[in-house]
Fold this protein.
Amino acid sequence: MSWTILKIVNHFVALRVSQEDEQIGLNVAEHGATTELYDLSDTMEDHILGDMTARVQVDDFTEVGLIAHQYNRVVDAVEEKQNVIEQVNAQKKSLTTKRPKLELTLNRALPN
């Protein structure tokens, strides 16, 4: 009898939270409370999706804080390498556009 009543009630009003809410935890889903580990994971997800601007907040006196600090260092290093690649590509493009002009100048300067 109880099972039947609960099945009918569940049809109209969900008695269980969604699977996503279960995965992130009820404190986060229902109350907006977060943990350092959740914040780290959330920022990493942003980075996976391409937004590398955010950094993880660091609490130096916890294990997650130490991991967050190292992760931020990794993200900084990746950004530095990306900047170097962009500079090299810009120089390469600049040289490619200047090459025909240099060849023309050399051809004029060299005797036949």
